[in-house]
């Protein structure tokens, strides 16, 4: 069996990894280098966690997602993961703890409420004014994303995959499993489209369903007197009072301090100019001021524009496309942590190990292994 994959982000590379392990011949095309710095997957880090507020079904997938990464680290001979606790705070009326506690208890993951009067001493980097609820949860950590996809691409090259950088796919025919690159049409037995924020260029019928969302993250240099506090700091999720949804990754293992805001813009295209605009920066600045104590003392060292692909319900799309195609699209902020697991799912579907409709339901967090 010969499979073509359009897109060499964590989705396409993970599918290629899983297929190679199943003995399938794979050709991976990317419009840029492999890995591509413009891919959503190409950033210093991504958060992984078991806790999944508000998206039923995905918490149950997380133990398998962690196991899939363990298998990947074994294959790569390198572990691009740093365990780190997470603290979740909120400043509004909504209480997130009861649902989170029930979810974590079901998975056997530690979770504990944090006393608000001890919070400033425990996490000196955090702006504590207005916090109404805080809890710490385990089973979380940092995936070093760019290092992971770089190592994965190297593993694929060493393990017989045909990697085609600078090969933009201009047309996919999922019925005949043909792929056109540089005016040349090649035939395969199956074709996977894992084109991230560019997916609707290749599968136009997804344009309403899978929407690119331009987002900005800030890389920061903390004041020197905060360095030791940051060395101990957890990953921080700050729901604000509902006005923003900040996530903060502490500097670790040679990566930089980063803050982003989870509010989607649902605008743009992956190939748009990525020079940050005032509109890109404003929401993250608001999140920064709200979340970190003494935020004006931090030096902004990079304002980075990147793209999510967003669906209305934030659930993964992993489904058959035509007679011989497969569409794999991470939706919103959970594509990296689930990448290898989703790759294994696609390989199972294409090799007939699992029924396609079961894989699609499972990937959407709707059960059915
Ligand atoms: C700011 C931000 C924060 C995030 N935080 C987290 C997090 O904390 N945890 C988490 O799990 N996830 C997070 N995510 C989501 C996660 O990074 C993505 O879901 C995931 O990386 C998407 O991977 P992908 O392979 O689908 O897409 P991509 O990584 O974008 O890969 C798609 C590839 O397809 C290529 N391509 C496109 N069109 C063509 C074509 N026609 N021909 C050839 N190649 C093509 C592109 O060049 C690209 O390399 C975050 C995303 C963003 C933007």
Automatic annotation (TrEMBL):
Residues annotated as signal peptide:
none
Q: Which Gene3D superfamilies match?
A: D-Amino Acid Oxidase, subunit A, domain 2, FAD/NAD(P)-binding domain
Cross-referenced SUPFAM superfamilies: FAD-linked reductases, C-terminal domain, FAD/NAD(P)-binding domain
Q: Which InterPro entries match?
A: FAD-dep_OxRdtase (IPR006076), FAD/NAD-bd_sf (IPR036188), MTOX (IPR045170)
Q: Which GO terms describe its molecular function?
A: oxidoreductase activity
Q: Which cofactor does it need?
A: FAD
Arranged from A to Z, the UniProt key words for this protein are: FAD, Flavoprotein, Oxidoreductase
Q: Respond yes or no to whether keyword Electron transport is given for this record.
A: no
Supply the EC number(s). 1.-.-.-
Which Pfam families does this one have? DAO
Task: Determine if Flavoprotein is one of this entry's keywords.
Answer: yes
Source superkingdom: Bacteria
The residue ranges of the FAD dependent oxidoreductase domain are 2-348
Transmembrane parts of this sequence? none
Indicate what this protein is called per its UniProt record.
FAD-dependent oxidoreductase
């Amino acid at each position: 069996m010969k499979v073509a994959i359009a897109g060499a982000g964590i989705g396409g590379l993970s599918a290629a990894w899983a297929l190679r392990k199943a003995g399938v011949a794979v050709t991976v095309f990317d419009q840029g280098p492999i890995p591509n710095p413009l891919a959503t997957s190409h950033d210093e880090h991504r958060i992984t966690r078991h806790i999944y507020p508000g998206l039923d079904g995905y918490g149950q997938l997380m133990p398998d997602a962690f196991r899939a990464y363990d298998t990947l680290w074994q294959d790569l001979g390198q572990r691009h993961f740093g365990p780190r606790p997470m603290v979740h705070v909120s400043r509004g009326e909504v209480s997130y703890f009861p649902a989170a506690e029930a979810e974590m208890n079901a998975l056997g993951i530690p979770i504990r409420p944090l006393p608000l009067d001890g919070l400033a001493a425990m996490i000196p980097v955090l702006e504590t004014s207005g916090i109404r609820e805080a809890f710490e949860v385990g089973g979380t950590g940092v995936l070093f994303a760019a290092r992971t996809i770089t190592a994965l691409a190297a593993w694929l090259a060493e393990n017989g995959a045909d990697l085609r950088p600078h090969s933009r796919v201009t047309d996919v025919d999922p019925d005949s499993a043909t792929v056109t690159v540089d005016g040349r049409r090649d035939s395969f037995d199956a074709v996977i489209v894992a084109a991230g924020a560019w997916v609707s260029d290749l599968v136009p019928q997804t344009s309403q369903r899978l929407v690119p969302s331009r987002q900005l993250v800030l890389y920061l240099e903390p004041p020197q007197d905060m360095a030791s506090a940051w060395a101990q700091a957890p990953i921080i999720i700050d729901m604000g009072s509902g006005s923003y949804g900040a996530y903060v990754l502490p500097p670790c293992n040679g990566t930089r301090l980063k803050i982003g805001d989870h509010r989607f813009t649902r605008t743009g295209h992956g190939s748009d100019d990525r020079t940050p605009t005032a509109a890109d920066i404003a929401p993250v600045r608001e999140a920064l001021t709200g979340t970190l104590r003494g935020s004006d003392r931090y030096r902004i060292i990079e304002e980075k524009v990147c793209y999510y692909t967003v669906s209305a319900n934030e659930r993964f799309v992993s489904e058959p496309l035509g007679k011989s195609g497969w569409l794999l699209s991470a939706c919103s902020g959970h594509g990296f942590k689930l990448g290898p697991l989703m790759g294994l799912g696609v390989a199972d579907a294409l090799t007939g190990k699992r029924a396609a409709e079961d894989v699609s339901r499972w990937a959407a967090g709707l059960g059915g292994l």
